[in-house]
Amino acid sequence: MLDLTGKNALVTGIANNRSIAWGIAQQLHKAGANLGITYLSDDKGKMERKVFELVEPLNPSLFLPCNVQNETEIQSTFAEISSKWNKLDILIHCLAFANKDDLSGDFSQTSRSGFNTALEISTYSLIQLAGAAKPLMTEGGSIVTLTYLGGVRAIPNYNVMGVAKAGLEASVRYLASELGQQNIRVNAISAGPIRTLASSAVGGILDMIHHVEQVAPLRRTVTQTEVGNTAAFLCSDLSSGITGQVLYVDAGYEIMGM
Questions:
Q1: Using an 8 Å Cβ cutoff, are 45 and 19 in contact?
Q2: Residue 21 forms part of a structural domain
Q3: How many CA atoms lie within 13 A of 162 on its CB side?
Q4: In its keyword annotation, does this UniProt entry include Isomerase (predicted)?
Q5: Which residues constitute the domain of residue 43?
Q6: Binding site: what residues are annotated?
Q7: 3-class DSSP state for residue 146?
Q8: Of 31, 55, 120, 194, most Cβ neighbours within 10 A?
Q9: What are the pLDDT digits (tens) for 204-229?
Q10: Which positions make up the binding site for substrate?
Q11: Closest by CA position to 62, among listed 76, 47, 42
């Protein structure tokens, strides 16, 4: 029933085989979507090679550098999409970053530069990419981003990223309100803690995972594949009436009081 054949999907944020974005890309491919993959370029091309080798089995028709702190690269990415695909149906936003020093210690000591960096990459980038995608979603579309419980509750060692995720979730609602007139839906998935390159910067991530396994109704945490399945659902016609929402994929942990 879940069929994305004929849909063009741009996936951002793949760093390695533990990335949630990688789990999403695999499930979109499985559902028949035509994939475009972006990567964060570096001077030595190490990340480009690493990501390309990983995604090659998915046969992406576009493979592009896209640093969201570089406006030229964003424009180039969407110009290439327009040229090669003519339209975009799906945008997957899996981008988040904060300086490690701003993820621990007293939140009141968050540096100005650290705050700006976290909000620019983790929050504003969704607005940037949605704005660039809007003219290309001529037949409607679906935008999906990743958030975390730390956006609505105080989580140890999350600090400024919690503020960034709160802003991200608010952005989902405002974008959904704007883009709904073009039949473009915008939603977020709040995934339970998964050991990824990004989450490794959060102190005590393994303790967080073990805690979820003990407390969550399903007595476990979740996998990249489970998050990927939810993303594929949100990108399909099966979720045509859903927009502006945060869907929790966390084995039920969010409902628990203790």
A1: no
A2: yes
A3: 16
A4: no
A5: 8-249
A6: 13, 19-20, 95, 98, 165, 194-198
A7: strand
A8: 194
A9: 677 888 999 999 999 999 999 999 99
A10: 98
A11: 76
82 is a domain residue: yes
How large is the angle between the packed helices 20-30 and 224-234, nearest 10 degrees? 50
223-226 LR contacts (CB < 8 Å, sep 24+):
223/23, 223/194, 224/18, 224/19, 224/20, 224/22, 224/23, 224/24, 224/26, 224/194, 225/23, 225/26, 225/27, 226/23
Give pLDDT tens digits for 90-118: 999 999 999 999 998 999 999 999 999 99
Question: Which residues make up each annotated binding site for NAD(+)?
Answer: 13, 19-20, 95, 165, 194-198
Residue given tokens 């490690």 in the structure block: 100
Q: For residue 1, is it within any domain?
A: no
Q: For residues 190 and 210, is the Cβ–Cβ distance under 8 A?
A: no
d(Cα 65, Cα 81) in Å, to the nearest integer? 12
Collapsing DSSP states into helix, strand and coil, what is residue 184?
strand
Output the CA–CA distances (angstroms, integers) from residue 135 to 29, 88, 102, 180, 207, in the order listed: 24, 9, 36, 13, 44
| CATH code of the domain covering residue 144 | 3.40.50.720
Number of domains the chain contains: 1
- pTM score, two decimals? 0.95
Kindly list the catalytic residues. 148, 158
* Interatomic CA distance for residues 125 and 127, integer angstroms: 5
